[in-house]
Specification:
With 824 residues, the chain is of the alpha/beta class. The protein folds into three domains: 99 residues, no CATH class; 376 residues, Glycogen Phosphorylase B (Rossmann fold, 3-Layer(aba) Sandwich); 237 residues, Glycogen Phosphorylase B (Rossmann fold). It is built from 33 helices and 24 strands. The N terminus is likely disordered. Bound molecules: ligand 26Y.
Length: 824
Amino acid sequence: AWKKFSAKGFETKDEFEAEAVRHIETTLARSLFNCDEFAAYAGTALAFRDRLVIEWNKTQQRHTFADQKRVYYLSLEFLMGRALDNAMLNVGMKDIAKDGLADLGFRMEDVIAQERDAALGNGGLGRLAACFLDSLATLNYPAWGYALRYRYGIFRQEIVDGYQVEVPDYWLDFNPWEFPRHDVTVDVQFYGNVRKYQDQSGKQISVWENGEIVTAVAYDAPIPGNATKTTNNLRLWSSKASHGEFDFTKFNSGEYEQSVADQQRAETISAVLYPNDSLDRGKELRLKQQYFWCAASLFDIVRRFKKSKKAWKDFPNQVAIQLNDTHPTLAIPELQRILIDQEGLEWDEAWAIVQATFGYTNHTVLPEALEKWSVPLLQHLLPRHLQIIYDINLQFLQYVERNFPKDRDMLGRVSIIEESQPKMVRMAYLAVIGSHKVNGVAELHSDLIKTTIFKDFVKIYGPDKFTNVTNGITPRRWLHQANPRLSELIASKLGGFEYLNDLTTLHKLEAFVDDKEFRKEFQEIKYANKVRLSQYIKEKNGVAVNPAALFDIQVKRMHEYKRQQLNIFGVIHRYLEIKDMTPEEKKKVQPRVSIFGGKAAPGYWMAKTVIHLINQVGKVVNADKDVGDLLKVIFLEDYNVSKAEIIIPASDISEHISTAGTEASGTSNMKFVLNGGLIIGTCDGANIEITREVGEENIFLFGNLSEDVEDLRHAHYYEEFNLDPMLDRVFTAIREGVFGDAGQFSALVDGIVDHGDYYLVSDDFKSYVDTQRLIDEAYKKQDEWLTKTITSVSRMGFFSSDRCIDEYAEMIWNVEPVKPQTNG
Ligand code: 26Y
């Protein structure tokens, strides 16, 4: 499907070499005599970039000319990872480049590895946004992403003496994928005051004035679709001092230091990605980031709309804006402000446009992750927006009062303003009220939001405002790029690579489940991926692991609700069992490598304690001669997108073991199964739908169900607590200092024994250990295991982000693709 394009640039190996060398010598001004791997990367990237840019420009022209509704995906996070391999896949000349690089003395793999990850996100939400961009372009939707151009992405994690240490990620030293648009700027206002007056006709006019201005500068990155010429745009805003801010009078009057300080303060807005992915800390700078980004993006969207000279009522027919969680919720009062204060629309007319424009995706029900901003802070930073929020609330509450006159408590419950000290603005409620659709990210999660956090809103608006779009992943990156041999094997059976763009056709693979030759190759590929990860582990951790062992992997952000502690307690239990065994008993043990990876938010002390415990357990277990190859425990430093591409294809079992009802969806669960691994998981998030697709016999589910969580939590407080004896034994070992100073881990243990075990680790421990035992036995029957993995892969078609984007387009955005004329 991906044939080469006819655009200018290179067509042959020699032409590629000439282009790469030209870039190295001229664009980089480097001599070929010191052409290292990095220069080879730069030359290759620039050669491919030239080709992308041509299609990018054409696509933007085509979309303007087509004059159809566009999608704007507002996300504070885009966890893009590396771009070169994806660019080569989508331009379609990777083999030519590979030969060309070989001529120059380089291996493609090493060259690709020179690129730094674009890590502008924390975890699942940010990676989902990146998968969505890939699918939007691949499916030819006219769509833009909007975000911030952080100078520092998510921190780099180093493990020092078993502890997480955060190191800044300055990733912009060399970034060939971004194009600064110094001519595309927006002035964004903060602070100031609101002046009200009546014009000649008696109309109330509000003027927001005397504020501080910061300028947003656009940086664009091309997003190529796969097997199509469509190349969409990701626009990142960078903050800089406006000319007013960088005060030349100060400068000239000798206050040079002050004027530079002002400039730096402006640049601080887009300086750093906040590394929290759940606890909302209500920092002023974070609110500034959110408004800066919303204001710049909306100005840009409105500017583009106004060029079409259409009537305002057509705005929602031309523009769909999707809010990735509540982070961009200020876009709602901002659009209302533009329409009434600047464009002179009446409130009701403007509000109808706002509601028809926005859709809101919720990613969590955890109360501590729901954003709230204090009224005094908003009053100070965005006085006009606060007034508009109050007006939105007033209209809304009047509507509720009319429709539910008997429910007296309802008004207080659904008010956007929480009557606390200080008062708080509930961003999720504002997002629900200002959007025409609200969606969760997996079936269970979408049901849960309707019965918990948004229960009253279902009564108010009816159930149709709420919907589900189960998450998906792009098979281009998460199968073809991460696991090229498996992708090729599948293509050889399915008659080409077209399945990557219609993943439902994967089901045809099931016909080969008994094909001897196919099974052998499938198994060999998994083994080779495990060998590759083993080499990586040897290099990074200095531990030799046996690639024939069962690889058990849990990689994701460190969180109490995700329960890495349950996993490591299970590992300790396994270790203690092995220590008790006779040599005869040991022979029956299924060897296992337990692999962990993930970052903890820098201020999340409990999550950091779990990292420390995992590393301490690894230190003890990996050095224990009684254990040998039967158990190894590895913590992989600095888990990120490019490392995920190595880690995920190497799993036999991956762990998705959140307390039921806490993980909205999960997306790595999908990636692992698509790459021929099985899951141990709770009945939570997308695990439930994965089970429905692959069949109960092909997944290892355990633990309590979400409907029982409330009662179980209650029981911890009001009933006698009997600690499971196996877990008790694990705690005893920890307390005795088997894994180092016990004091370090006391909070972890006490949280379960004395403080209510909020995440129900003790309730699920036995079920978890029993299920791990089943897995050991199942893995020993390699033939049956292989059947399970092949069957599962062939049933994963539903989880492509292409399906997901088509659902958004149809149910929420009402947008159609714009097909390029030919895909020759
Ligand atoms: C408010 C701020 C502190 C904040 C920042 C980032 C809050 C949340 C986040 C990120 C949340 C996140 O990554 N959520 C994950 O979204 C995935 C995509 O929908 C889900 O698969 C996953 O279950 C959910 O935890």
